[in-house]
Every structure is written in C-alpha cells, then in structure tokens.
Amino acid sequence: MNPTRHLTPDEIVERVFPADDRAGAMPEHLATCADCQESVAALHDAWLLDRGAVSGAVDDLPSGFWEAQAAATMAGVRAGAPVDAPVPEVGVFPPRMRGILRHPALAFSSLAAALLLVGGLSLLRSGSTAPPVQTATVTTSEVREVTPAAVNDASDDELLVSVDRALEDSSLAGLVVEETL
Amino acid sequence: MSVDERAAKRELESEILTRVVAGDVDAFEYFVVTYQKRITRFVYTLLRDPADADGITQDVFVKAFRALPEFKGQSAFETWLTRIAINAVRDHIRRRKPVVSFSELRADPDDDGPELPAAFDPADGTSPERDLLSRDIRRRIAEALVALSPRQRAVFVMKHYEEKSIAEIKVVTGLDEGTIKSHLFRAARKLRERLEDLR
Ligand SMILES: [Zn+2]
Fold first, then answer.
1. Residue B98 and residue B52: Cα distance in Å, rounded?
2. Looking at the partner chain, which of A20, A78, A99 has a beta carbon nearest the beta carbon of B181?
3. Is the CATH number of domain B1-102 1.10.1740.10?
4. Residue B186 and which of A137, B10, B85, B157 are 20 to 30 A apart at CA?
5. What residues does the ion ligand 1 have nearby, CB within 5 Å?
6. Domain B107-199 classified CATH 1.10.10.10?
C-alpha cells in the first residue's frame, strides 16, 4: 500500500471486520493519518454501539420474560406440537401486534408485560395439563464426580451432519433442519 | 470457562440428556433455562425482530427436544443448539420473503433505535457530531446485516458479535475455513457498500 494515500472504504471495513481471527498488520498510513484514524474509529464505535444495543435489549429483559418464555417453550415441548408449522400455541406475541415492535426495547418490555396473559392462553389452547414450570430441575450439585468428558471434537461435524440427516428422516419430517446452512 | 468446567458441564448435561431421552420430559427444562438467553440474543442479533426472536427461540428448543435421541453428546449441546438456531433462522428468512429491511420495519425514519444502556453506548461522552455519525453508521450496519444471506449473516454475527474464532464457527457450521472467511469477506464488502460515503 502506498503510505501516502488514504485508506479505501474496503480497507477501513477490513480494519474493523477482519475476515480472519486477527486484523492484518496496521497500514503504515493509518498510524499517522488522523482522518483515516477517525474513519476507522467511527465504524468501530458504530459496531460497538450496535453490538451493545442488541445485547442490551436482550440482557435487560426482566426475569418474568425468561420465565414466561421457558414456560411457553416447555408447553410446546410437552405438547409435541408440529414444529415446521407456525408456532401460535407457543408464540407469545400475536403477529398483528408487530406494528408496535418498532422499538426493540419497548417491544421486549411489552412482550414481558403481555406474557402471563398470552402464555396462559397458550397453555390453555395447547390443552397442556403440565404443572407450573419450575426453575432448572438439575443443579451442578448433582454432578457426582467430574470426569474427563468423552469428547471427540473432531467428530462434531460428523455428529451434526448425522443429526441433520436424522432430522430429515421421515419420522421427523416436520423438522426443518438441513445439513447445510 | 476452564477445561475442567467445560468437562463438568458436559458430564452434567449428558446425565440430564439421558434422563430426558428416557422419558423425563421435565428435565429438558434445564436446557431451556440454561440456553434461552443465549439463543434469544443470537436470533435477535440476526433478525432484529423481538417477536421473531422469541418465537424462533421457542421453536429451536422444541426442535432440539424432538431430535434429542440423535444427540450423542460428542459435541457440546450448545454447539448443536446453535446449529439448529441457524437453520431455524434461515428457514424463517426464506419463508418471510420478500425481505423487509430493517429501515422498513421502522415507521419513523428519524428514529435511532432504542435508548441504550449507558454502559453499552460508546458514543457517550464524545462529541455530538461523533454521536450522530456513530448512530447513523450503526443503523446502516443493521440494514446491511439484514440484507446478507442467512449464511453470511450467521457467520458474520458469530464472528463479530459473539467473538467466536474461525475454528469455533467451523465447529458450529460445519463449513470449512476458506468458506467461512469468504463469507466474512463478502459480508464486510456488502457492509462497505452501505458505508460508501464513510471515506
Ligand atoms: Zn488517511
């Protein structure tokens, strides 16, 4: 790279979003050009802002949201509902209400506020007689002994492919999980 | 998490899986409670739609439950779950065509999105001009993200939002390293097209 010219847009993006585990060596020009540093910093800040916003929108959800989501999920699990179809009986928010979901934080809050009602209706609709959902039923105290897991990381891909194949099996035809992304 | 902790977790999850497969359906709630936040965050980052994120997260666990007999524990449960989530998001995107852009989901084009917790707002404390620039770029990053193909989007989010290594992405997706890097490169290029005037 010519050390006297500004970074191209591609080079700026590559500084913030390298297609490798590490960014390449810093271009000589970047070390000395305030304009280019500013461009890289602006993109970097925006990315942090976006990442923080999406993370925060989820992490800040009240515990009631997670409890309701878990309850609705377990109702779906127990009901053995077909999963390739839309999931109205476990969906906690009617699609027609999406209009108010413009604001993610508000949307999640609204979701949480509506959860007990809608979640309750979901349980009724699914005909589930499941008892009230408890918190995690198993805790780490139940680990009797820590043994090295029989882990073979090299077989992970193979496993995933075999799982995907199984999911495509006729007995599980309703499940849409394929071997490729 | 240390190697020992990971091993202990696998051991624990293996025991619970055995119980679930043997018919103890309630035991599956451990996996829901343990991973619901992580999956919701992942799906939300990919789709930027809270209601979809919630519904798809539930769907992912239901699918995982039904596929459990095939899960032998050679892979971390979380890895397997993530794969199911990626596929569920991909199917959702395909079903939902034509794709509605992030900006179109907003009635007010001047809306900069949710108020951010101060700790998450890196623009906080810098100049107003810098704040505006960051928010504008952020909006365009989000727009570019939802315009990516499902595969590119998943790889990009794992790399740059979840800070997974290429090797970790490889395990989750089953894609080879060259393909992953190619997706990352192309995703970054599309991003650049949205940010052409940055220079
Ligand atoms: Zn320059």
1. 16
2. A20
3. yes
4. B85
5. A 6, 33, 35-36
6. yes
